[in-house]
Amino acid sequence: MCTTCGCGEGETKIEGHALHEHEHTHADGTTHSHPHDHAHAHGHGGDHDHAHPHPFHEHHAYRPHPAEHDHGRTVRLEMDILAKNNAYAVQNRERLASRGVLALNLVSSPGSGKTTLLVKTIEALRGKVPVAVIEGDQQTSVDAERIRATGAPAVQINTGKGCHLDAHMVGHALEQLPLEPGGVLMIENVGNLVCPAAFDLGEAGKVVILSVTEGEDKPLKYPDMFRAARLLLINKIDLLPHVDFDIEKAIGHARRVNPLIEVMRVSAKTGEGMAAWLAWIEKGAAAVRA
User: Fold this and answer.
1) Can you give the pTM of this predicted structure?
2) pLDDT tens across 152-169, in order?
3) Maximum Cα interatomic distance, the chain, rounded to a whole number of Å
């Protein structure tokens, strides 16, 4: 599990550039990190000056800055990784809310048809709701290129060996991504039904995509993901006549672990069920703007 193994540490790249950073800990226990491309200097009233940029997600937004800390002493404390992630997620959420942007975290196993669904969604919403995308992938930028071909802005995060996005990565991606007020941000997570369930990225909700070419027992095998999701999209329903997939059983399994989960059946290929999905997005975006 990533919260303990630290998979992919130090391998993250955003648009091909390494996410170098250093980290320090304040007297109150607050730990935060900075990229190395320092932009300005300031003093804290303590016994040092240091230089670093302070983008939106830095410490000041969620913790008062103490009068003193020892910056010369870089400390890497063993700490609760999820608590740290959640602090960044709060800042991402505040940034998105300030612009009235609905953020959805799309999660699935590999091969669910997530990117195709996203492309079709962007095309259908063109002229109605502006959509921007953060793409998560271990190594390539193939999916981001597919998104950009639709005309939507996209930022690629490559996680290396990491198997999920975290809120810190997303915060840096947001710095490079134009977000139109009142629009929608789609975050396409790394294909994995385990670790992404544990990481809040600052989204309004997780949307889990399950295709009919997978087993209908996935909700029972990976309950944390289905428990964390607001909406289950069962994709590739055009293939139902050709596969051994019991869709009612799959829905029953999902509601067994999450009785409140909404369910929609879609085919990104044929467009069946897409109208309900698009209406769900537009309703959510309108609620955030209100």
Assistant:
1) 0.77
2) 999 999 988 888 899 999
3) 71
